[in-house]
Amino acid sequence: MKTILVVDDDKNLRRLYKAELESEGYRVILAENGRHALTLANTEQVDIVVMDIRMPEMDGLEAMAHMLKEEKYLPVILNTAYSCYLDNFSTWAADGCVIKSADMQALKEKIKETFSRQAAVKETNL
User: Which of 15, 33, 67, 124 is 20 to 30 Å from 49 by CA-CA measure?
Assistant: First the structure.
């Protein structure tokens, strides 16, 4: 079972993402900010990170930079309410950037696409 680390400062969104992604067959762990996410990424076996950008204590971009410094192949999908980040070079290290929506279909598709791409890369390296 693949494990997704969901990082968002909104408690209700974390609950929604957990319920929706668990219904897709994933194990989901939750963090309320970038600092907490770094701790979990170092102590849990995480397959992918879905992270908000604007959060207190440590934002998603800073947390992503720290995570990728430790584990450069860890997939990170930025999930933000602000479309201005879609064309912002600071998000280019991420495997994707999705605009938050009550309909989580775009996020679910990006997660599946990222896992498929990751599997294809592993297969070609064998």
Answer: 124
Q: Which residue has the tokens 């600092």?
A: 35
79 phi, psi to nearest 5 deg: -125, 105
Give pLDDT tens digits for 76-97.
999 987 555 556 555 666 888 8
- Look up the pTM and report it: 0.90
Task: Work out the angle at residue 119's Cα, subtended by the Cα atoms of residues 51 and 104, and round it to the nearest 5 degrees.
Answer: 35
Domains of the chain: 3-124 (3.40.50.2300)
